Amino acid sequence: MAEWLVPIALFWALGALYLGGFPVRVEGGGGLKQMLGLLLTFALYLVVWWALRMGLQSALPAIASVIVATLVASVLFPVLSRVAFRVFGVRITSATHAHG
Fold first, then answer.
1. What Å distances lie between residue 11 and 20, 59, 92, CA to CA?
2. CA torsion through residues 24, 29, 30, 34, sign
3. What's the mean per-residue pLDDT of the chain?
4. Positive/negative CA dihedral, 76, 79, 84, 87
5. So what's the pLDDT on residue 2?
6. Structure confidence by residue, pLDDT tens digits, 10-24
7. Which domain holds residue 28?
8. How many domains does the chain have?
9. Is the pTM of the predicted complex or chain greater than 0.85?
């Protein structure tokens, strides 16, 4: 059960880095929709992590399956967040494509 602490703790650091530190803009929706988008991102991240971990468990040792599942879910974080936020009508766009 302690293996769940790894993706849960890492998610919040990834969220802060991606949504607050990367050159992206969160457009549309109010604070409530953006918070719901973040919570849905959290749920999707954990589902992807769990599915990967279950799939890899038979092929890899327990610690390796946790590490690989965490790495893959973390790489997918931008895609998961864009999908989750879009469900609530909020767009995540690249700030480098700012309108002139």
1. 13, 25, 17
2. negative
3. 91
4. negative
5. 83
6. 999 999 999 888 888
7. 2-97
8. 1
9. yes
In 28-87, which ranges are continuous DSSP H helix? 31-57, 62-75, 77-87
Rounded Cα gap, residues 89 and 57, in angstroms: 36
| 70, amino acid identity | T
By CB neighbour count within 10 A (0-12 exposed, 13-18 middle, 19+ buried), where does 28 fall?
middle
pLDDT at 94: 86
List of long-range contacts for 4-13, beta carbons under 8 Å, 24+ apart: 4/46, 6/66, 6/70, 7/45, 7/46, 7/49, 7/69, 7/70, 7/73, 8/46, 10/70, 10/74, 11/42, 11/45, 11/46
